[in-house]
């Protein structure tokens, strides 16, 4: 008799659980009751055992830490200022150095749950939110703090590869754990360059919108692949090239309804959540032509290797 396969296990390395929509609040208005506990439980029920909550500003980093402590051993946090929020440094009451000091204190005080420095990087698609010189200045300033703290990096790179690679190469020798470039949407050449430097590639729904995206995903080495949802954004939509892989035999998801018709136990249409990590893994496996078990275990090993996530003693365990 064939032995039964162990249940799939996932790590969602990028989830914005601090977003108000997970409390039922959309555009400042309460549309339905707070269902964060249900969101987390749905993820646990399908085997998503670990989640990394993204910090994108000082305020959101504090929030990520607070949430991580509510779910010990399950949720962890990143600390940092997103490139599109880097004007926060000039607007801080004690200036840029004051914000750096606050980030340092938070990361140090919360080292029980803080597993990465980020989300930091560059985004030249949204210079209207923060100009290039501001992004560059505070990316390098935050990089220096990450090196001081010796935390792996949780990185954002959009339409900026030349500057991004230059800064990464300048700091490689001081980054033993390197880091992850999350929500990757770059070219095959950019992916190969990052992998050659020792960085992992984070794949979510936004990484698989087009056939060109899928060609990149197919080429990402399994030993450098991690998976994420980036919820409440980056869902796999019907218009995406990746959706074709969910039409026949994809993971079953809870029923989704418009937020106005929400009822307990339901997902909300347009609000991505960590349970959909199963869809990400399924599509990646189909694109790469491997079993989904292989994708899940590679993602698990790679995420634990880089971020530990409370699994140091059993990092290669399969149970």
From TrEMBL:
InterPro entries hit by this protein: Metal_Hydrolase, TatD-like, TatD-type_Hydrolase
Lineage: Eukaryota, Fungi, Dikarya, Ascomycota, Pezizomycotina
Keyword entries, A-Z: Hydrolase, Metal-binding, Nuclease
Residues binding a divalent metal cation 2: 156, 182
Keyword Nuclease: yes
Keyword Transferase: no
Family stated for the protein in its record: Belongs to the metallo-dependent hydrolases superfamily. TatD-type hydrolase family.
Gene3D superfamilies attached to this UniProt entry: Metal-dependent hydrolases
CDD domains cross-referenced by the UniProt entry: TatD_DNAse
Protein name per its UniProtKB record: Deoxyribonuclease Tat-D
Gene Ontology MF: a single term: 3'-5'-DNA exonuclease activity
Source taxon at top rank: Eukaryota
Binding-site list for a divalent metal cation 1: 119, 230
Annotated GO CC locations: cytosol
Organism: Cyphellophora attinorum
